């Protein structure tokens, strides 16, 4: 990316220098200054848009290892929850600017949660014994 920017700047500066020597009047007129400032802002705007698009699309990042981010949920400006697959094990992590917290293991909690639901369903299915204290 730096190479592309430096090449573009060299080409722009070479064309400005060539224009100055060909007409032999320099960058004195206000039309030339306005044109130069406008083209500079257009180039900066294009660079910022390309940088934003590269950041959002993760172009060039190939994740072939055993550690992958499978999903993430943004909770705030710099806070998120991530599901990370580490060597076939899914882990839920809380990520902030200052720290990363281990929240839970997703593979084992599913079976724990299902057994907890079955246990609560069995408790609800039992007939409740009436306790009459008004004798």
UniProtKB/TrEMBL annotation:
Transmembrane segments: 34-54
Keyword Transmembrane (UniProt): yes
Alphabetical UniProt keywords: Cell membrane, Cell projection, Cilium, Flagellum, Membrane, Signal, Transmembrane, Transmembrane helix
Subcellular location: Cell membrane
Name the record gives this protein: Flagellar biosynthetic protein FliO
Major subcellular location class: membrane
Signal peptide region: 1-18
Pfam families assigned: FliO
């Amino acid at each position: 990316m730096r190479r592309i920017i430096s090449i573009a700047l060299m080409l722009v500066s070479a064309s400005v220098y060539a224009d100055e020597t060909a007409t032999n009047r320099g960058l004195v007129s206000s039309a030339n200054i306005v044109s130069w400032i406008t083209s500079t802002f257009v180039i900066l705007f294009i660079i910022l848009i390309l940088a934003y698009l590269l950041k959002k699309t993760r172009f060039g990042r190939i994740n072939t290892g055993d550690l992958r981010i499978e999903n993430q949920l943004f909770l705030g400006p710099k806070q998120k929850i991530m599901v990370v697959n580490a060597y076939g094990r899914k882990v839920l992590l809380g990520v902030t600017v200052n720290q990363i917290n281990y929240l839970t293991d997703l593979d084992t909690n599913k079976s724990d949660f299902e057994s907890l639901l079955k246990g609560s369903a069995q408790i609800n299915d039992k007939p409740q014994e009436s306790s009459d204290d008004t004798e």
